[in-house]
Write a structure and sequence with these properties.
The structure holds 2 protein chains of 2 kinds. By secondary structure, chain A is mainly α. Helices cover 83% and strands 0% of the residues of chain A. Helices cover 89% and strands 0% of the residues of chain B. In chain B, 22% of the residues are buried. Classes of the chains: A mainly alpha, B mainly alpha.
């Protein structure tokens, strides 16, 4: 709340101002994709990552950092934050490349980035789960 | 999608990682300083040391390499002022990191081993270390502004503002170092006893 939310709102606000001020318009595909990506990452942070971090902190206070419930929640929060990271990489790609509807290659990369991040997040989640199963509670 | 666009993506991503992590750590340091817990500050330093070779240096080299490739590939040239400013500032921040911050970090390691993180001499070195990192943040902010605004020699106000930020940072660092050294001088007789 002290850093990520203000920074993301600053990025959004200055993005709007750049559209107002610059040669852009809201019917450009890359701007719409950027706004959609922003909405996804903001809502993920606001409705899950932020509150879940708070719940996790309370659970750690109650049960200690090594409890199975805490470890499971940490794995879940890491999984979601890795998905979030994938969408952020995709937003940066879209902002840098500014693809239009005709830029099939660039749009394919924009879709591939979060897909690859999701696959990696699933693989790491499963690996973390296997490691957690080996460690005694 | 062009090669140049791919390079600019990697350049921006590298810059985000580099600048973002540095600023993020400063937030954590500021928070830890307010609690006065030098054990936590020492832990943060160890995290920064761990990340330096695994994250910071690769990210900075990615930024440099893609920047140079964009000049070669794109409509820019090395005689443009904003590119020269960017390259110079890069050299300064790299030299600050390798030549100043890293040795201070090594001194902190030795002091923590000998006296622990709460000893006055260790605290002063930790404070010095984080002060230098704040100077580095100011330099990075100026680099980002330079890259975004691409000033030429005619953009007097832009150049003046960037210069003023760096000058103010230098004065702040000098004054704070002065007070850290004064603290060290005062403490030396007490520690000797």
């Amino acid at each position: 709340m002290r850093l990520f939310t203000p920074a993301s709102l600053l990025a959004l606000a200055f993005g709007f101002l750049l559209v107002q001020e610059g040669p852009w318009s809201y019917d450009e595909l890359w701007i719409d994709l950027g706004l959609a990506g922003f909405a996804i990452t903001f809502l993920l942070g606001f409705f899950f990552l932020g509150p879940e971090s708070g719940r996790l902190a309370k659970l750690i206070d109650a049960e200690g950092p090594a409890s199975p419930a805490v470890r499971a929640r940490i794995r879940r929060i890491l999984f979601v934050s890795r998905l979030d990271l994938g969408s952020l990489y995709a937003i940066v790609w879209i902002m840098a490349v500014k693809p239009s509807a005709g830029d099939a290659g660039a749009l394919a990369v924009a879709a591939a980035i979060p897909a690859a991040a999701a696959m990696l997040a699933v693989a790491l989640y499963q690996a973390d789960g296997r490691r957690a199963a080996e460690v005694p509670a | 999608m062009t090669r140049y666009e791919f390079l600019i993506y990697l350049h921006i991503l590298g810059a985000i990682v580099w600048v973002g992590v540095v600023i993020f750590f400063q937030y954590l340091v500021f928070r830890a300083e307010r609690t006065g817990d030098y054990g936590v500050l020492w832990g943060l330093l160890r995290d920064i040391e761990w990340l330096t070779n695994r994250l910071f240096i690769p990210a900075t080299l990615l930024v440099l390499a893609t920047g140079i490739l964009m000049v070669v590939d794109g409509p820019w040239s090395f005689s443009q002022l904003w590119i020269d400013i960017g390259l110079t500032a890069f050299v300064v921040t790299f030299a600050l990191g390798k030549g100043v911050i890293e040795p201070v970090g090594k001194k902190v390691d030795v002091l923590v081993e000998e006296h622990g993180p709460d000893h006055p001499a260790t605290r002063r070195q930790l404070q010095a270390m984080f002060l230098l990192m704040r100077a580095d943040v100011a330099l990075l902010v100026v680099i980002v502004a330079d890259m975004a605004s691409k000033p030429t020699a005619d953009d007097v106000w832009t150049l003046a503002v960037g210069g003023a930020i760096l000058a103010a940072t230098a004065v702040y660092v000098a004054l704070r170092f002065g007070s850290l050294q004064a603290g060290a001088a005062e403490a030396a007789p007490a520690l000797a006893e």
